[in-house]
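Limitations

Structures in this collection are predictions, not experimental determinations, and the ligand pose is part of the prediction. Treat each record accordingly. The example that follows, with 2-oxoglutaric acid as the small molecule, is included so readers can see exactly what is and is not provided: the inputs are given verbatim, and the output is the predicted complex.
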Amino acid sequence: MGVLSVVRKIRELVWLISVAITRSRLPILKAFPYYFFYNKCTSRYSSNGPQIAFPENHNEYMEKGFTALKTAESQRLLTSLDDRIRSLEATGEMVYGTNALFEEGWNKFPEVELLFQGVLGDLIRSVLNSDFKIYICGFHQKIGDPEGANRKLWHSDSGPGTCLNIFCYLSDASAETGPTTLLPWKASLDIFRAEWDFVDQFLNEHGRKTVTSEELRVARHNFYECLIRERYADQVATPSGTTGLIALFNNNILHSAKPTAPGSSRRVMLCRVYPSDKPFDLDGYKDRGVLLKRLPKYPRASDIF
Ligand SMILES: O=C(O)CCC(=O)C(=O)O
Ligand SMILES: [Fe+2]
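Predicted complex:
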């Protein structure tokens, strides 16, 4: 083995150790600041005694990197939210895909605040064992198309391991609507262990300078899918249910989504949240609201209100 290969192997090993500890595929120097900040948040939160409203969801998230829940409250609030959005749309207002919850928008959808103050907030705090802040929140709709173009290939978002992706279903989460499909953390990590060699070989074969990011994205999907089918088919999970289901996952686990069937639509309130060392800032959200997409270069937890 040449010197370059040894250096590459060491870099890979260090990265894999960092991924295993931080549950994030970010480079080590970015992954650990989030991880340390998270530890600070959990110790601060648990110093007031255990406050885990949903222990089963906490345990499932710790083991698998995802969990889902539906309660009478989530069903009632998300049904009411779905009705409200439908009435606004009937008047010609665009809600899906817009920053509907920005600034005064936050107060236009009272169910959102009730969700964060109630079942959704309790679920997030249970999972993280920490207070939290909202980074991204808004409404997203996937409409069925005959080409199946709105399927999502297998991927990992590879963001901070402390960021939760949350799908609060306004529609059903069913085979027709195409909910998110998830692979548990341990299986995802096993696949990441094999990925460097695969990517290296792929780049060598197809030309490092000529391969486009789209080609690499598709190649990665094929690689993930092949291993998942061979070794982890029985571990793949697609949280499903009717309006009111809340599915939540670490953005680093492998995930994908089947297309929405023609004639059907998948409607969700989509959120990304981070741990916080301060209690939920309700007044701040009432004043400023939240954006559906906000992607600063370094979304360090401390930069977000
Ligand atoms: O649309 C989906 O179900 C997948 C979304 C996704 O990849 C994500 O939220 O990171
Ligand atoms: Fe994703």
